[in-house]
Design a protein that fits this description.
The protein is an alpha+beta fold. Among the domains are: 292 residues, no CATH class; 35 residues, no CATH class. Helix content is 27%, strand content 25%. It contains 10 helices and 25 strands. The strands form 8 sheets. The chain has a 5-stranded mixed beta sheet with strand order 1-20-21-22-24, covered by helices on one side. α2 packs parallel to α3 and α4 packs across α5. The longest helix is centred in the first third of the chain and has 18 residues. The radius of gyration is 22 Å and the shape is globular.
């Protein structure tokens, strides 16, 4: 499916558009509601919005900032709306590494105003491509002025368009498994091979992304989750309409130069579209979406084996094809339903921030005083700046959590890079037959390691704007997510 008016904005036009866009805001609230009684036909609507920024836009995903020189493939917001005659749910995935709460909230406010869908019934999430435009300030990358406002507008437009595209639909739920593409990236290694962390300490007990096939490797510091749960929509005549899938894989990478790319998430969408929609049926729109699961400590690298060389974009296409093939195979086994209940619940919880001590601040200032030039180099300098910035954070943060029920499926939306152990625990203890977490949802609050992983240290636990919630945050979020899932199932 393509968008008729998908031409990319010039940089001047882009900033001008965003400069006159008002930022919407609304009060956060707790809500639990459900729509189960059938009062009309089940319907679904889809839309695709191009959110590709102009050349020269910052790209997040690395310690140092990078300015894009073009786009290998479109950066998009994919929108799916479900309507059971009583209630509507909107699901949105955005090709971005990390999206803060503000553009998501602005989009939800406009969606509510123009469609009546309450914010609690709209799930927005970033995919976590590391070659998307910067939306959240992280390390040395900052958003281009106006991009977040532009992003919020486009998300809202996509959901509004999807509501306008609602048509009769049937729904089904499936789950595949692709174990060969997910590996835990935190490893127990020979202690002598673990370097000093950026804070001048040698306290880490694990190493993130250790050298491949190295003699220092002992064993991974955690499991993986190979499941690929998905929600499928088709028209009454049997033609595919949409698939919303979930996989616990951080991202793949392997791009060229400074090109923007939606990574394997878009490759999956393209591959599944080709598998489910024959070319002769291209006139009938179909939308495939892949959300990021509990992948905070999971990537695509098999550290027990030596690395292989791939052409740019080749590896992400291979991974995406394998995931799409599994979904395609499981799609053939589905039993579609004419109607399902919908329910939503949200809750704000207050979590502490790991702020630096005065001694840690003094060390950070000394490091930065010795820096020459505008760009920071090396983890010690970069984390010194992060230490200064975190000192200005409040002692506690309000973190939005959300649960949705879509028939037999439960979704726990968490605004963090969720560790796989948390996702597995939610799946095991949730009340619905198929439940999965959507990470990086409705905002961004950094990595979410378990308390046990905090004790092990390593990159994902190092205090920064990418990892700042209190050590016990994972337990509080998991507990609340399960409570919300029980609410929507009651």
């Amino acid at each position: 499916m393509t968008e008729q008016h998908s031409s990319r904005l010039s940089r001047r036009g882009f900033l001008g558009f965003c400069g006159v866009t008002a930022t919407a805001s609304f009060l956060s609230f707790q809500e639990t509601a459900r729509g189960s009684e059938k009062t009309g036909p089940f319907r679904a609507g889809i839309a695709l919005k191009d959110i590709t920024p102009p050349v020269g836009t910052s790209m997040a995903g690395h310690f140092n900032d990078r300015m894009n020189t073009g786009a290998h493939d479109p950066i998009q917001a994919r929108c799916l709306v479900l309507d059971n005659g009583t209630a509507r749910i909107a699901l949105v995935t955005v090709d971005n590494c990390l999206v803060p709460r503000e553009p998501f909230d602005a989009a939800k406010a406009r969606i509510f105003k123009e469609t009546g869908i309450p914010p609690a019934w709209v799930l927005t999430s970033a995919t976590h491509t590391h070659t998307g435009p910067t939306a959240t300030p992280v390390f040395q990358s900052d958003p281009v002025p106006g991009y977040c406002e532009f992003l919020g507008q486009k998300i809202a437009e996509g959901v509004i368009e999807a509501v306008g595209n609602l048509e009769a639909a049937q729904i089904a739920f499936g789950c595949g498994s692709v174990p060969g593409e997910v590996f835990n990236r935190r490893w127990f290694v020979d202690p002598d091979s673990i370097p000093e962390n950026p804070f001048g300490e040698k306290t880490d007990k694990v190493r993130m992304n250790p050298p491949r096939a190295h003699e220092s490797l002992i064993e991974p510091a955690g499991p993986t989750d190979p499941a690929v749960p998905f929600i499928a929509l088709r028209r009454p005549d049997g033609s595919p309409l949409a698939v919303y899938a979930n996989y616990a894989l951080h991202y793949v990478g392997g791009t060229k130069g400074l090109e923007l790319s939606a990574d394997y998430f878009a490759c999956f969408a393209n591959a599944l579209t080709k598998m489910l929609v024959p070319e002769e049926d291209n006139a009938r729109p179909f939308l495939a979406m892949l959300s990021n699961g509990a992948s905070g400590n999971i990537n695509n690298i098999n550290f027990r084996e030596a690395g292989e060389s791939y052409e740019p974009y080749e590896k992400m296409r291979m991974v995406a094809d394998n995931v799409a093939k599994e979904v395609r195979a499981r799609y053939e086994e589905l039993e579609f339903k004419d109607h399902v209940p919908l329910a939503a619940a949200t809750r704000e919880i207050m979590l502490g921030v790991r702020r630096p001590t005065e001694e840690e601040l003094q060390r950070a200032r000394q490091i930065l005083d010795e820096v020459e030039g505008p760009e920071l180099r090396g983890a010690k300098e970069i984390y010194a700046r992060e230490t200064i910035l975190i000192a200005d954070y409040p002692e506690k943060m309000s973190v939005p959590l959300q649960a949705l029920r879509i028939g037999d499926a439960g979704i726990a939306a968490i605004p963090c890079e969720v560790f796989v152990e948390i996702g597995l625990a939610i799946k095991e203890n949730a009340p619905l037959p198929m439940t999965f977490p959507v990470a990086l949802a409705n905002g961004y609050h950094g990595y979410l390691p378990t308390e046990e992983h905090h004790a092990l240290g390593g990159y994902e636990t190092w205090r920064a704007r990418s990892s700042y919630l209190e050590v016990t945050a994972a337990a509080a979020i998991e507990k609340t997510a399960l409570e919300l899932l029980r609410e929507v199932n009651s």
